[in-house]
Amino acid sequence: MHSALKRLFGASVIDEELVKELVKDIQRALLVADVDVNLVMAITERVQEQSLDETLPRGVSRREHIVKVVWDTLAYFLGEKTVPLTINPGQPNLVMLVGIQGSGKTTTVGKLARYYQKRGIKAGVICADNFRPGAYSQLKQLAERSNVPFFGDEDEKDAVKLAKKGFKDMRERGIELILLDTSGRHREEVGLIKEMRDIAKAVKPHEIILVVDGTLGQQAGAQASAFNRATDVGSIIVTKLDGSAKGGGALSAVAATQAPIKFIGTGEGLDAIEPFNPTKFAGRLLGMSDIRGLIDKVREAQIEIDDDAARRLMKGQFTLTDMMAQLKQLKKMGPIGKVMEMLGLQYKLPDDMAEIQEENLKRFEVIMNSMTRSELDNPKIIKSSRIKRIASGSGTSVRDVRDLLKQHEQMKRMMKQFGKSRRRGRGGIPGIPGLPGM
Ligand SMILES: Nc1nc2c(ncn2[C@@H]2O[C@H](COP(=O)(O)OP(=O)(O)O)[C@@H](O)[C@H]2O)c(=O)[nH]1
Ligand SMILES: [Mg+2]
Q: Which end of the chain is flanked by fewer CB atoms within 10 Å, N or C?
């Protein structure tokens, strides 16, 4: 991933070859994150097609377009927004959790009850798991720790009856969010699936949440389909994302059920639950910490060159005023190191390039204020006597003025190269002149 994005940001021409390389790198990243092979293919096909789409929206460079396509594609599969549980206040909203044994249902029921109770919703929990010994006391303890109402009956062996009794009890107590914990067993056993269907029929839950173990790889898809055939899975919670698992299996579960991920579990503790953040999750899958931030940066950093400046550039002219405009645009990106970090890159910039400092820009401006129009437009004429005059006029040193001129020379050379690549390539796009050789 990193190498391709690095190339994407450094290339002066973005062509089919580069897009293919990028697509390959995305494939690798997603496979490492345990995303299902077929999904990986579907995702990357979309990226490839749209990245090379010739009609770019106005004002959008191909570079920006590609990063956006990658993001949009993941958003298409993950959902772009966080979707909360729908709870009608004052009503008994029954939410049923399903999933195989060990996926984290009971823990998640405890977490959700606490989460919503803290937000002013009357929450309660029902244990309808009469299969696993200890399920009753596990949930009872979790409920007691958060002080939420609990219903269970160790003597009732019929899960459907348990669920019904529990629902009645909770309704009578005026509970608004009733969380129904069910049993799991080992796999997509026929018995388990039938039980889930029977419970759902009997109590008609408001929403059915499938709990998926985030460390599970590609089997997540098959599991999700099995539950989805039995019951109408309305949303997904992915647990155990506190470890090194990247959670790629969750994408398969989403694809299999068409249901959105609503929360993720990030630890064994009762507070270790977070609303699902698609952006963060996409970054996790791609091995980049902050993909949305990156897209925003790319957008901000687009070097806008007006027609006039472009024409001058083509003729090899690059005035000090042009340079100032460019430096200011670069400055908007913030410290370049930060942008690299978001890309997950460890790139050593030449020291004097690493940061465009506020003071430098200010000093440049002060110096330029002491120049004449013709000096600004044609800095070549600034020889030592003019340098001395400008330095004393602006209250800076001869060295400061020379630094400015040196910086201008460097940037001019870069802009010339960029001008050439633009003339050459149909795919040519504006480069970021402050970042040579990436
Ligand atoms: N690290 C971690 N462990 C979790 C998380 N959610 C659940 N677990 C653990 O997973 C195991 C199984 O959880 P449990 O709720 O009993 O699963 P159930 O069989 O589906 O009810 C327990 O040891 C939990 O502490 C999580 O988000 N992170
Ligand atoms: Mg359980």
A: C
